[in-house]
Amino acid sequence: MVRRRRIRAKHWCGWTGIRANWATLLAARSGLLQRRLFRPVDPSTGAPLASVAQGSAADIDAAVKVARDALPKWQALTPHARARYLYALARQVQKHSRRLAILETMDNGKPIRESRDLDIPLVARHFYHHAGWAQLLSQEFPGCMACGVVGQIIPWNFPLLMLAWKIAPALATGNTVVLKPAEFTPLTALAFAEICREVGLPDGVVNIVTGMALPAKPSSSIQT
């Protein structure tokens, strides 16, 4: 059994460039966040878990701009340099595996055994796997090029694992990412943004936008 604990007095920022932490972003945008928050709940109790920022069209535009600005330097890295970041992400997922598993179970409602023994280990394995592919692309896929800024929307049933399926290959192939997690299960995506910051991933390479269904039309500069 997992002892459930409520996440108190914590706002989770709606979109994050890697440089700023959530507290800094909250302070910078406190007026907006105070007006536009939603509260994902614990499926087992219905109790709110956290207050999370509702993303807007302006947030999407800002995230795309940051991702576009980061793209040239990210693509200019050697395949081995990009692979080192992916290896670092995999190791940090393993380091924080217990916390991520508990957070996934609280947010999604699946049994802790599934989160701990299946989902989170597979997240790490996907980043390890694509770190290897990052170094083989020129041999296996000669002449292929990255798409650019990639827009990604993931569902609620495998929140962090779906994130890994989307982000790992995108980064390995030289893309930058704007990702929206499901409104029901945003917390491990935000925890992953913190992991990106911990490993020193360059600013703007991964951007997380939270919220209910977004009213904005997809930007023409995003590959979906």
What does this 3D model show about the protein?
With about 220 residues, the chain is an alpha/beta fold. It has helices spanning about 20-30, 30-35, 55-75, 80-95, 95-110, 110-135, 135-140, 160-170, 185-200, and strands at about 10, 15, 35-40, 50-55, 150-155, 175-180, 205-210, 220-224. The strands form two sheets. It has a five-stranded mixed sheet with strand order 2-7-6-5-8. Helix 4 packs antiparallel against helix 6 and helix 5 crosses helix 6 (about 110-135). It is globular. The N and C termini lie far apart (about 40 Å). The relative contact order is 0.20.
Keywords summarizing the entry:
224 residues, alpha/beta, 5-stranded mixed sheet, 3-stranded mixed sheet, 9 helices, 8 strands, disordered N terminus
Which band does the percent of strand residues land in? 5-15%
User: What is the rounded distance between the termini?
Assistant: 39 Å
Radius of gyration: 17 Å
Q: Give helix and strand order, one letter per element, not per position.
A: EEHHEEHHHHHEHEHEE
Number of helices: 9
Summarize model confidence as the mean pLDDT: 82
What profile does the largest beta sheet have? Answer: 5 strands, mixed
Low-confidence region ranges: 1-34
Walk across the major sheet and give the strand order.
2-7-6-5-8
How would you classify the helix and strand content by structural class? Answer: alpha/beta
What does the overall shape look like?
A: globular
How many strand units? 8
The percentage helix is 40-55%
